[in-house]
Known about the structure:
- The protein is of the alpha/beta class.
- It contains 13 helices and eight strands.
- An eight-stranded mixed sheet has the order 3-2-4-1-5-6-7-8, sandwiched between helices.
- α2 (9-23) runs antiparallel to α3 and α5 (70-85) packs antiparallel against α12.
- The longest helix has 18 residues, at 48-65.
- It is elongated and about 70 Å long.
- The two termini are 18 Å apart.
- 45% of the residues are buried.
Amino acid sequence: MGLFDKVIKKTKDGFFQRLSRTIAGKSRIDDSVLDAIEEALVASDIGVETTLKIVDSLEARVERDKYLTYDELVEFLREEIGILLDVDGAAPAEEPLDLSKKPLVVMVVGVNGVGKTTTIGKLAARYKAMGKKVMIGAADTFRAAAVEQLEIWAGRAGVSIVKQGMGSDPASVAFDTVKSAVAKDMDVVLIDTAGRLHNRTDLMNELTKIRNVMRKVVPDAPHEVLLVLDASTGQNAYQQAREFSRATDITSLAITKLDGTAKGGVVIGIVDQLKVPVKFIGVGEGVEDLKVFDRKEFVSSIFSREDIEK
């Protein structure tokens, strides 16, 4: 059994149950079937806009071919979703971040409660295990718990952490972290940021300030802006993604809690709407439970043969 067979089982089971009910006993795909497919896609939290895009393409295909079997329908969906997830045109890689940068500076954003701190800790452990020198910057200075959690994760991973007192300027922490990382010849720098969805202007100003001070030390930092989202929140995750994308330039996504929800379709909608690739998924609480996202494996698992042969 592959990674995604277990991770997205609830999403896959729910979707295929609806799909099977939708076309049971049907000899052709008519308007009623198209409507039911649309409902099944929306119920999987793919989102209305992305669902309509898929259904429009399906309607055009049906108009051209006049008839689609169940297998042909599933193959169409497999291809269509694969295209939607391929936003960067790059083949899935074993290492999705550019480690040729030294130090590679990653700014991690996301609201409180989505697993942002945990994701940073797992990333630190991942790169430490690869033999990289890693430093964490605790720039979420508004929550004592955030700094305490990062300290615990840094200890588990055996990496350095830079912090200041509660209420300190987040940009100051980011600056000190990057400056220290350069002085100590670090390979990877992970900068935590406040997880408040406060006024968008405040959020934009705060993230922009962090960017600007880091660039005084590393001119092209951050090299990656990683947005962490909780798949189990469904469309709320999309709303969060949209707000953060308006506040800063998101370059990649990390999706947590995919294994505990039937709302995994939200991944497809978010990638399609934001045109930002998923690079990591969280599949548990352990230090090694952060995996590289392989969109081909993801799509293959959703539409595996045992499901097609209902």
